[in-house]
Write a structure and sequence with these properties.
Number of strands: 2
Order of helices and strands: HHHHEEHHHH
Largest sheet: 2 strands, antiparallel
Structural class: mainly alpha
Strand content: 5-15%
Number of helices: 8
Radius of gyration: 22 Å
Distance between the termini: 68 Å
Number of domains: 2
Length: 178
C-alpha cells in the first residue's frame, strides 16, 4: 500500500493541501474561489463545506458576492442556491482579451475563426452547428458530434473576440473624449 505522506507531515496530501489553502487565504477568498468554479448551483452549506468555513460565514460572503455581481442566487426546491454569475465571467473574459491582445491580433483571430466556420459550413453543408446537429442520424460518428461542439465553441469565441474589439474601441474613444 502506498503512502503519499511524508514523515512528520501530519496527514495525507489532500488534508495538507486543504490546510495550506485555509492558512493562505481568507474565508471570503475561499468562498469566492468555490463559487467561481463552473458547477451546478450550491447551497450555502455546500459552499461552506468546500470553502472550509462555517455556514453563517459562507452566507455572509455569498450575500456580498451576489450584491457585487460575482455570484447569483436562485430559489430552488425551497433553498437558496448560489452559482457564479456567467455575465460577470463573460465580461471579465472580454476585458481580459481587450487588455492583453492588440486590436490587430484580435482582428486576425476573428478572420481565422470566420475561416474555420466557413470550413464547417462547407464540410457539413450546414448553415449552423444546430443545423448540423439536427441533420445527424442517430448512429452518427463521434467525429461529427465533435464538429458540432467545436463549431459552437468557435462561434462563441468569435462573438467574444468581436466584443473585445468593440470594448477596446469604446474604452479608447472614452479616454479620448475626457
Amino acid at each position: 500500500m502506498s503512502d503519499d505522506s511524508e514523515p512528520g507531515d501530519g496527514g495525507n496530501p489532500v488534508s495538507r493541501a486543504r490546510e495550506d489553502w485555509k492558512r493562505s487565504t481568507t474565508a471570503l477568498e475561499r468562498v469566492q474561489q468555490v463559487i467561481e468554479q463552473p458547477s451546478e448551483p450550491k447551497t450555502a452549506a455546500e459552499v461552506a463545506a468546500e470553502a472550509l468555513v462555517s455556514e453563517p460565514t459562507a452566507r455572509k460572503h455569498l450575500k456580498s458576492l451576489v450584491e457585487i455581481g460575482t455570484a447569483s442566487a436562485t430559489e430552488e426546491e425551497g433553498a437558496t442556491r448560489y452559482r457564479r454569475n456567467e455575465d460577470t465571467v463573460l465580461y471579465r473574459r472580454i476585458r481580459e482579451l481587450a487588455t492583453e491582445r492588440s486590436r490587430q491580433e484580435l482582428i486576425e483571430s476573428v478572420h481565422d475563426m470566420k475561416r474555420r466556420i466557413g470550413e464547417f459550413e462547407e464540410t457539413y453543408d450546414a448553415a449552423s452547428p444546430e443545423d448540423l446537429a439536427t441533420s445527424l442520424e442517430p448512429g452518427a460518428t463521434e467525429c461529427a458530434w465533435e464538429a458540432v461542439s467545436e463549431w459552437q465553441t468557435t462561434e462563441r469565441n468569435l462573438h467574444i473576440t468581436q466584443a473585445a474589439i468593440n470594448y477596446g474601441r469604446a474604452r479608447d474613444l472614452g479616454a479620448a473624449t475626457q
